[in-house]
Every structure is written in structure tokens, then in C-alpha cells.
Fold this sequence. Notes:
Largest sheet: 5 strands, antiparallel
Shape: globular
Radius of gyration: 18 Å
Oligomer: single chain
Distance between the termini: 16 Å
Order of helices and strands: HHEEEHEEEEEEEEEHE
Structural class: mainly beta
Number of helices: 4
Number of strands: 13
Amino acid sequence: MDSSVLDASSEPFNTAVKGFEDASHYTSFLGSSSAPTALCNPPHILPQEQTVGITIDWSSIFVPGSGGPQYGFRRTELIAPSSFNPAMEIGTTRFHFSIKADEEHPLDYTHEYQVVFIEPATDLMCSPFTIPTAELLPAVNATSFKILDHNLNVLYATPFSLGAWHNFAVDVDWDALTLQVSYSTDGDKLKSVTGVVPNLSAGNGVQGDFHFGILKLPLANPDDTPEQQADVVHYGIQMGNLEGLL
């Protein structure tokens, strides 16, 4: 694949969640320059996949169809096209994703990031964490991945170490309303790190679009009102750093 697929926002990726630049400004297929996870691409064998690099910068302000520009966020995300959803969200689905740090464009761990999620059309973006203030940051576990259920309970957490691929699989039973998480690093086989746990707050029929990328939440601006500070979509402090993930 090449950048024309990204700029066209055509299958297999919808690339509409980005700033005002072309999608290929924020997202790129890295080809042979960065080897993908060895989990599904053993060494010395031609890889079946390629690494996708995703970045955000000062321009990564998404303007949705309604609600105005999201000045509080910086975000770049790839979305599975809606034509995929019927097959993806029936019965039991296993979502695989592997993430590696972009050490040339590090994240700012005074902020919270959301990197993989299903966004139902009827739900607002939400966070399990308190409104961040500078005196309390970065949090002790700021550099850890956290897998959450629909009710924002942390099911599994693991440090985001540099230099390694972090492989996850989340099994979703859409009928029984359960989740199970598996995890490994690099080429190690995935192992279950949770049992099958209830996800009852999701409710039957609560489905949505599968997003992966970078959604960076703001810091609270002390000059904003409490109501504005609570509206993290539209208010808060953001820096213009170039940040990325693989």
C-alpha cells in the first residue's frame, strides 16, 4: 500500500480523523524501513504485514461533522470502514493490535493517550482518569498500557517499554457481553492475562467503529472555568510537539 490509499480514505482504512493536512502527512506505511512485529512475521521470512507509523502535531485538530473543532484533542486515527462492522461485531470477535514506541517522536507522558478503542455512535468520548493538573503529573503509571472495559475498569496493565513490540488480543463476545485479554512482546506467543470477564455495561447492540492511532487528551487550563475544564474535547492545554507510535 502507498500514501494514495491513505489520502483517498479508502478501504481498508478510513482516515478522516486527522488535522487539516492530507492523511499521508500524519500516517505512513513504513515498508522495509521498520520490521513489523515478529508475532505474525517470523525472522528470515518475507513479512506478510508492514508497520504503519502514526503521528500527531500542532495541526492535528479534528473537525467532526457537528460540534465544532476539537481544540482540546490532538488526534490521528485509522478506522475500519463501516462496511467491515457487520462481520466484525457479530458473535465473538478477536481484535489484534501491536504497538511499538516511535523513539524519534516520543509521547509526552504528562498527558493521557487513547490508542485503540471502539467508539459507539451513541457514546461520548470518556476517560477513567481525573482532569489532569500540572502539579500531579506525570502519574506514577503514566507509561503503562491499560486495557479497560466499557465501564472503564482496568482489566490489565503493563509497562510500555521501549524497543519492543507489545502485542494484544481482546476477545469480545457481543452476545454474552464478555471480554478476555491476551498479551505478549515481540515474537512470543500470546498468552491470556485475564479470564473471561463480564462487560455488562456495554449492553446488547452497543457497537461502533474500531479506531487505532493517537488521541492525546489535554491538560487542564487553570484559567478555564470548571465547566470548560471538564469539556476536554474543546478546552485545555496542548503543545505542538511531533509525537508518534508504530
